[in-house]
Write a structure and sequence with these properties.
The chain is mainly α. The chain has helices at about 5-15, 20-40, 45-65, 70-80, 80-85, 90-105, 110-120, 130-140, 160-210. The longest helix is centred in the last third of the chain and has 51 residues, at about 160-210. Residues about 150-180 have low confidence and may be disordered. This is DotU family type IV/VI secretion system protein. InterPro entries: T4/T6SS_DotU, T4/T6SS_DotU_sf. It comes from Burkholderia pseudomallei.
Length: about 220
């Protein structure tokens, strides 16, 4: 998943993590954006699609971040939005919503764009009408074409009645939750180390540039 690292950071915020210093969080988000740009390039995404996906990621991070900041922190974040830093716009959410309307009215859509924009609905950044339109578009995109065999859903529980299914379901939800939490923390440790290194490299580069181009005195 191209947005794996981004979604991990968002998941931590939604689970109650706090942003103590805006500067540090911004540096991490900048590293995430650059990482996503490289992932898109490596994945063969070019031109308009890559730019649209990149803008959507910046807007998504801006909006989710703003939800988790104090009033003073919001003012600091607004001074340098990710969408402005990388795409020179400040009304990104309205552009995303307009793009979704056009996308859903079209006869075909890019699966990566539909997946990206569905996140906006899942996190309450779109109205129900747009959310339903996106869901319909994703179903249409996933519908098998003539001659293409549909993927069958595997039967997990073949024996037992409804009570057994419910018991198994509860057990697996608990186990699944614990495994998901363990996986989340493991992934965080790995990604935290990598992003911290990238942030350090960014700071070194900024320091080198300042040394090469010192501020002129009076």
């Amino acid at each position: 998943m191209l947005l794996q690292d981004t979604m991990l950071h968002v998941a931590l915020l939604t689970q109650g993590a706090r942003i103590s210093r805006v500067h540090d969080w911004r540096a991490r988000c900048i590293a995430l954006v650059r990482q996503f740009e490289q992932a898109l390039q490596d994945g063969g995404y070019r031109g308009g699609i890559a730019n649209e996906l990149g803008l959507a990621q910046c807007v998504f991070l801006d909006e989710i971040t703003m939800r988790n900041l104090s009033t003073e922190q919001k003012e600091e974040w607004l001074r340098e939005l990710l969408q402005f830093r990388f795409h020179s716009i400040r009304d990104g959410l309205s552009k995303v919503r307009a793009r979704i309307d056009r996308l859903c009215r079209g006869h075909s859509a890019n699966a990566a764009l539909l997946e990206m924009y569905s996140l906006f609905h899942e996190f309450g950044l779109l109205g129900d009408k747009q959310g339903h339109a996106l869901a319909d578009a994703r179903v249409s995109e996933a519908r098998p074409t003539p001659g293409k065999k549909a993927v069958e859903t595997a039967e997990i529980w073949k024996d037992g009645g409804a009570a057994n299914e419910a018991a198994h379901g509860r057990s697996w939800r608990i186990v699944g939750g614990l495994l998901a939490f363990a996986a989340l923390m493991t992934m965080w440790l790995v990604i935290d180390t990598r992003l911290s290194h990238e942030v350090e490299q960014m700071e070194v580069t900024s320091g080198d540039e300042a040394a090469i181009h010192p501020a002129s005195g009076d």
